Amino acid sequence: MLTKIKNFFIVLLLVLVISQFLRPEKNEGSYDSITAFEEATLVSSEVKTILENNCYDCHTNTTRYPLHTEISPISHWMAYHIEEGKEHFNISKWELYTDEEKDHKFEEFIEEVKMKKMPLKEYTWIHGELSSEDREKLINWAKEARTRAKEKPVDSLLVKESDTIVVDSVKVDSIK
What we know:
Layout: H1 2-19, H2 32-40, H3 45-54, H4 56-59, H5 74-88, H6 99-114, H7 121-127, H8 132-150
Helix pairs in contact: 6-8
């Protein structure tokens, strides 16, 4: 019986050592796409800090990896959560969403934050809970951004006649 337990732990140790060499791909993209989102949705510096600390790691193409995520199987678990988060809402792809999709993303964002489903409990174990004050700031910002998006002026989409320049020139030779 003792040898079976010993063999089990040896196999387990080997699996853990080998898994350290099988690393998931890291989520390390450009911050440019995040900047585009922040400009489009008029993110204040206060809300930006909250988003950076609680949302961007799993919902953008750029993740800050704490040291503990370098250890397998935690690295694989983290990669799975990032993939899932980006599948539901990827801030880095904000410009690719249609207006209807953006509205729906904000609707879901507001609901998830309000119901305390986001950030995930697993994330808050290390990073801490989102305070009710920060939660309220995020919800208010998202509601305002959603309202602004719906109130796009229709005339900004139309081409004004004064903006169009037509050059009509005809060369006429004089007749002698």
